[in-house]
Amino acid sequence: MKVADLGAKREVVALHATKLDCFIRALERGEEGNTKVWTNTAAHMGISQLPTVVIQGKERTKADCYAMAVKLSDTNSVAWLGLGLSLGPGGSPSTPLSVDIGSVSRLHCLRRAVESDPYNSRAWVDLGIEVATHSAATATAIKGVRICLLYTSDAADEEDSVDLGGRRLI
Q1: Distance of CA 61 to the CA centre of its chain
Q2: pTM of the model
Q3: Nearest-10 Cα torsion for 91, 97, 103, 104
């Protein structure tokens, strides 16, 4: 990476940290009931590479912020997707969530993301990868979710499957 590239990266991280500060201020000044503010706070934590932030005197992780967004709006597909992807290996939180939303797993969150917005292509891809990396029992656990057909130039070349970073969806 060139020095100029590093400078540009620092500017991008600083910009997102500034946006993050604005979202935190909004949460502390009466917007704690706004699911979009919680979702954006979590997203900008990830971009700024901050493991935790203090909101209303409580230390919160990115998963906590997504969980709060989900608690406020059970149909927030972006929040469900973010929560699922922010869960630790094995699909459960690496630390307990500070928000009580019941028992959650990565598979549950990705399924809820797809159910909440069937047009969320990122959720479909991540759900497909999650299912592909587990046993057939996991695949039957998501019955009721429509099968996802990905069409890309790779899929057309391969005729029957598509390679997603070392994993194949068929």
Answers
A1: 13
A2: 0.70
A3: -40
